[in-house]
Design brief:
- It is built from seven helices and ten strands.
- It has 240 residues and is α+β, with helices and mostly antiparallel strands.
- Strands 1-9-8-7-2-5-6-10 form an eight-stranded mixed β-sheet, sandwiched between helices. Strands 3-4 form a two-stranded antiparallel sheet.
Length: 240
């Protein structure tokens, strides 16, 4: 087992790792099952296991599965470590998700609110199942870690990132005597990303959902005035 490049088989790579993680947990229940997903954007990615040639009467992964179902099954284990890290919704450092960013047109902010609401609902479900959720103000990494290996690259954990785009990345196996790179990835995620993130619970996520819905109503009700304010703001910026 050596470090290998990933090209168009990102979804297969994830499913291969996660299916091995489940099988391993059945054989060695005392060993902790691990799944860390680090992605600025999170989506409800579907994994058609039978299309990947997978079938099992030991673990229930032999059907169409969404990430929320996979996390639910992992979190049902007694010994597990499931963490999701994504970009903060109100970051000023990296404002891609920030619906309060005044440099964005109100129409674009409205679209971003809708995207955020969909993502927050997914995070709420993952949290309800038992995953730990973290928000980080400024990162661009895309990483998945299990106890058996890790991969990092250009792909967000979204349908587009896993199935539509041409993406690239590198796989690091956790293999005895060859796991230095794997351990470096694990330490990086733990020390540089998770430790600098804010952990949120289901109530926090629900509050963010409520805030987004209120902001959507406000933007819709005041859309013409907000558009006029945005145009004046852009004119001032161009003159500066």
């Amino acid at each position: 087992m050596t470090i290998s490049e990933i090209s168009t088989n990102v979804s297969f790579m994830f499913f291969d790792l996660i299916s091995q993680e489940f099988i391993r947990s059945k054989i060695h229940p005392s060993v902790q099952a691990k799944l860390w997903i680090v992605s600025p954007w999170m989506g409800e990615v579907l994994f058609p296991s039978r299309e990947f040639g997978f079938s099992s009467n030991v673990i229930i992964l032999d059907r169409l599965l969404y990430i929320t179902e996979i996390v639910k099954e992992l979190c049902s284990l007694d010994n597990k470590d499931v963490k999701i890290v994504t970009l903060s919704y109100y970051s000023e450092q990296t404002p891609y998700k920030n619906p309060m960013d005044q440099d964005r047109h109100p129409g674009e902010r409205t679209n971003q609110i809708a995207r955020n609401v969909g993502e927050l609902r997914i995070l709420k479900e993952l949290c309800d199942h038992g995953a730990e959720i973290f928000l980080h103000p400024n990162f661009h990494d895309k990483i998945v870690v299990t106890s058996l290996g890790a991969y990092k690259g250009s792909f967000n954990f979204t349908i587009t990132g896993y199935y539509r785009n041409m993406e690239s990345g590198t796989y690091y196996p956790n293999y005895p005597a060859r796991n230095l790179h794997y351990l470096n990835v694990v330490n990086y995620v733990g020390d540089a990303i998770i430790k600098n993130s804010m952990k949120v619970d289901a109530d926090d996520i629900y509050k963010m959902l409520e805030d987004h819905m209120k902001l959507h109503q406000y933007t819709q009700a005041n859309y013409p005035d907000l558009c006029a304010e945005w145009e004046k703001r852009m004119e001032r910026k161009h003159r500066e």
